[in-house]
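question for whoever is on the cluster today: can someone run the full assembly for these? three chains, 880 residues total. i dont have access anymore since they changed the login thing
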Amino acid sequence: MRKITISLLTIFLLTLFVNISFSQEEPLPPSEVKASDTPNDNGHSITVTWKLSPDDGAGKKNVVAYEILRSDNPEGEFEIRGVAPAGESRFDDKGAKEKTDKNYLPGHKNFYYKVRAKADKTFAESEVSNPAFAYGQWYHTGKTTVLIGVILFSAFALYFINLARKGKKLFVRPLAGIEAVDEAIGRATEMGKPILYIIGLGSADMIATIASFTILSRVAKKTAEYQTPILIPCYDSVVMAVAQETVRAAYLEAGRPDSYKEENIFFVTSMQFAYVAGVNGIMLRERPATNFYLGKFYAESLILAETGSVAGSIQISGTDEIAQIPFFIAATDYTLIGEELYAASAYLGKEPVLLGTLKAQDWGKALVIISLILGALAASFNFQFFLNLFRVQL
Amino acid sequence: MVETIGIWIAAILTLGIFSFLYKDNPFYKFCESLFVGVSAGYWFATTFWQVMMPKLVDNLAAGRWIYIIGGIFGILMLLRLFPKIGWISRWSLALVVGTTAGLYFTRYLVSNGMVQTENTIMPIFVTGNLPQTIGNLVIVVGTFCGLVYFFFSKEHKGTFGGFAKVGIWFIMVSFGASFGYTVMSRMSLLLGRLDYLFGTWLGLIK
Amino acid sequence: MSFLEKLLAIDRRIIFLFIAIAAALPLFFTVKLHIEVTPIVNNVYNALEALPPGSKVLLSMDYDPGSMPELQPMAESFLRYCFLRDLKVIIIGLWPNGPIQANIALEEVFKDEEVKNRNPQYGIDYVNLGYTVGNEVVVERMGSDIPATFPKDYTGNKTEDLPLMKGVKNYNNIDFVYNLSAGYPGTYEWVIFAVDPYKIKLAAGNTAVQAPLVYPYVQSGQLIGVLGGMKGGAEFEIATGKPAKAVKYMFSQSVTHAVICFFILIGNFAYFATRKKKGS
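^ ran it for u. tokens below:
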């Protein structure tokens, strides 16, 4: 009886042991480990690929991760460079480019890799990979589409700017907001009230602000001719300087340099709502006949336009800040929606560069429209080749 | 004690600005001027201590002379205080405008042109999935008509004008959504102030 | 003048009064609203949940006190979440006021009992690198060298000496970027100058005004998700299981929205009715 118990116990323990050793069994190693330079980078990175261990997701199903090891000597010691989760068969061994960095990965020096399939407590190592070294590329092949885009757009721009310079008339469709400018200035003159021109909160390098300067130049020239004062409270000191310059030039061009008043173009503050509070005060005290809001506007747009409307001014607005356009549409008389602001500045300025780029943009848009239609068709009928043309590898 | 005074000042100034909702008044004007003055001063101090000192003075003091170039361009900017040589400041402006344009050109084309176009290209018909088909159709038609509206080389007449009209409808719908979001934003700001008045100041809200 | 015409010419101050009452009254009541976490917010939460403890997250504070009611609750809920999950937070600001807002948020978060028990340490669990001038150029430059972009932290310590910053060279060493933005520079600049060129994982909290502008980037996969305005903030608080300020305001927000909708409806009704009358 006792013997039976002991043998049963032994068998039981043995099965247990077998079970344990089974779960502890090494997975099969990954195979075909290949190393090569990571493409399209500045060097200092090597890409390692491998074929999954047969026990990853199949077989014994015990692979939990892969460890990637590197050495500069195939027989030497390997150090762990990173871990990839199970199921993954690629790892970028990214190193630093500075020699002083601990993680420095020199270019043009051979390295060897091994990949370890890790199970719970054990692991299995692959063979050593081929040697590979990192080096930088001058050309990023994944960005060819971007290059084509840049070349196309630049070519359009240069072509049209050239046409405009040669005096060829380039058609820009009329915009309601712009046609109202002269009328608005005339009204201010009749009422003997000033015009308020707000360039917005943008800095001088923003496209909306630059467009606003062009329109300001035209408006200022008119106010100079009609002898109507123009007030320009500014949010940015550089914008103020450029605005002064623009208005001075416009007055000079109109033959009225003596009427130019620099103190009418002034800095308020660079705090958003403090600026609004300041401008609101001006609107209610000066009661300008016409308010222009052209440029970059943020949350202050409605507060300004609303106050202007209470003050009874005619209001012309325009911004490329999409979130603010609804408020301008609701609270002002004329609104230049987004790009219409740029178009208006090209239309008024008659500057070859502006007109040319506006035309180039139109043709850029035409290209997008065509690709959109063709793309939608290609996607519907699953023409992968065409779709890949748009894929940008970043 | 100091905190209590601070809370009282903030609350009274909040009420002062709110009083504008009734009508323009001297109290509002006082608050407004105070706000403008304080913020201009604050802005100056911030620029001095967070930009001028760490970015220019400290770097020069540490012997990183390359920063002198930025400093010189900054000083050139100040030359507009002297009308005769004011034009020199345009060099600094040119530097800022040029660098920004260069920085944006390809980045903008990729992020807003390529990647967005790639994601708007979608199958118009998704077999067996009507909601998806409608969704895709709205995106493709909306993008197409929206682009037509912003095409400036042709007057909006005939079929082209029809597309532009559909485009402006799409744009107006999106503006409506945007309007709603902004109303939400404004209400949040109001709630923030009211919570301050009733909660932090008067202690009526726990 | 008919009733409808009178309605159209209603003194705006009456509307202001209604809105003020609608906003203020509900603040005094605690009403539990059912707030559903929308996928666009849930994406942010899931992406954060997927980060292992000890991951480094960058919090870019790009707003000033003007947007506090909307964005401050988001900053607080994010910081609280990070401390409880043991995510290491690196704070920067593209707006001069951003890092100050962060300090205000930290002070608030440290009042939380659970956070107190964790006792997050400056330099180890979080750092505030302050503001630096340059807008989008700052974002761009951090792609190659973060310590060079922010050589000193907010209080003047050398960035390199902070234990948390050891081994943080550029975006490769950052696991997640969270941007709270009220305008320029903000989410848009982060997408263009960090997501596309450096492939960072970015999620954002925006003022409701900004939110519709960045939604296209979610659709295109350039942005993981967006917390849009106070509602987005409330959803995130619900997702993390820690309802706080944004949730508290939701009832007031809903009541004011209802009042505004009511005014829009009667305004439009009166407008079209009087126009029809005039027309006939």
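summary bc i know u wont read the tokens: The interface with chain C takes residues 21-22, 46-47, 50-51, 54-55, 103-104, 107-108, 110-112, 115-116, 118-119, 174, 177-178, 181-185, 187-195, 198-199, 204-205 of chain B (CB under 8 Å). Chain B has a mean pLDDT of 88.
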